[in-house]
Design brief:
With about 350 residues, the protein is mainly alpha-helical. Among the domains are: about 120 residues, Leucine-rich Repeat Variant, CATH 1.25.10; about 100 residues, no CATH class. The protein has 21 helices and no strands. α6 runs antiparallel to α7, α11 packs parallel to α13 and α15 runs parallel beside α17. The longest helix has 17 residues.
């Protein structure tokens, strides 16, 4: 069977490695260690798994070495095997593997650290609750539970909540959750970034302004939309310029969210919105959404006489902006579009 480990057909060598792992014979350790660096990754992966089955401490060093393998499948199998062996000498290499570029390896490393159960892994695993990949975050949380950890601060409670997708708990935590939410806003998957933006808006802490403004340039429209909505909820004028720019976004949901946000910010947005509306170089959709924001601000009743007058001077143009955007079809009274937020109260 040992001879079959070097068979030219990887199927044969893979089967041999698996069989050796099931024999519980310590004599199999040396040939399996040699097979870790086989030419075909299938064989190296099977050898690592077999060494995990044997759980012989002599395999720890060689398995740590192949955590640097160029093939992620071998790195993943090695991390898992180290967890099954349970030797605390593997703690530091497994902690390093938590930050692996491939989530399969990070997930396996987190699980392995949980199996070993050494308290030295707690802080790195807590940090991994904010890993960019959801699989690593979940594995880190499960590992921490295995070790017997419980959150020692509101920051850690927020981090655990993010790993569990418990966004409402983050909102309940409030200000201490801002830092971990900002971290995941810049690193998580699209759905996670969207949820983080929404939670930051609900908390309303001004420390979230700059990260949310940056997220207005996110590749995914639903992240940009959630960020615009959050900025409107917080209502800080520092976001105005980027929200005005978002009126020209390629997705109508983002444009609408930006317009609504500007309407909520209110009087400080009037000048920039009028500049967009008056600019002959502005695109049609920008003028439409600027008009809607201006009307929303006007109807809020929060304007002074000067700002009200500035908007009223453009009343006819604002109402016709929506009329023209709709093509004017069958519409003889553009101010009748109050349901769409582009008409003034009479």
């Amino acid at each position: 069977m040992v001879k079959a480990l070097s068979a030219s057909d990887w199927h044969v060598a893979q089967a041999a490695a698996a069989a050796l792992g099931g024999l519980a014979d310590p004599r199999a350790v040396a040939p399996l260690v040699a097979a870790l660096t086989a030419t075909d990754w299938h064989v190296g992966q099977a050898a690592a798994a077999a060494l995990g089955d044997l759980a012989d401490p002599r395999a720890v060093g060689p398995l740590v070495d192949v955590l640097a393998s160029p093939n992620w499948r071998i790195r993943q199998a090695a991390a898992a095997a180290l967890g099954r062996i349970g030797d605390p000498h593997a703690i530091d290499p497994l902690v390093a593997a938590l930050a692996e570029r491939d989530w399969h390896v990070g997930q396996a490393a987190a699980t392995a650290l949980g199996r070993i159960g050494d308290p030295r892994a707690i802080d790195p695993l807590v940090a991994a609750l904010l890993a960019s990949d959801a699989e690593v975050r979940r594995a880190a949380n499960e590992a921490l539970v295995s070790i017997g950890w419980a959150p020692r601060s509101t920051w850690e409670l927020a981090a655990r909540s993010i790993a569990n997708d418990a966004w409402s708990t983050c909102v309940e935590v409030g200000a201490p959750a801002v830092e971990p939410l900002v971290t995941i806003l810049g690193a998580g998957g699209a759905g996670t970034r969207q949820a983080a933006a929404t939670a930051l808006g609900a908390i309303g802490d001004p420390r979230a302004i700059d990260p949310l403004v940056a997220a207005l340039a996110d590749y995914y429209a639903h992240v940009r939309e959630a960020s615009a909505t959050a900025l409107g909820t917080i209502g800080d004028p520092r976001a105005i310029d980027r929200l005005v720019a978002a009126l020209g976004d390629g997705y109508p949901e983002v444009r609408q969210a930006a317009a609504t946000a500007l309407g909520r910010i209110g009087v400080a947005a009037v000048g920039p919105l009028i500049a967009v509306f008056d600019d002959p170089g502005s695109r049609g959709e920008e003028r439409v959404w600027a008009a809607r924001s201006l009307v929303a601000i006007y109807q809020s009743g929060r304007l002074g006489p000067a700002e009200r007058l500035e908007i009223l001077r453009r009343r006819r143009e604002i109402e016709h902006t929506h009329y023209d955007a709709q093509g004017g079809a069958g519409c003889t009274r553009p101010s009748g579009h109050a349901d769409l937020g582009v008409a003034f109260d009479h």
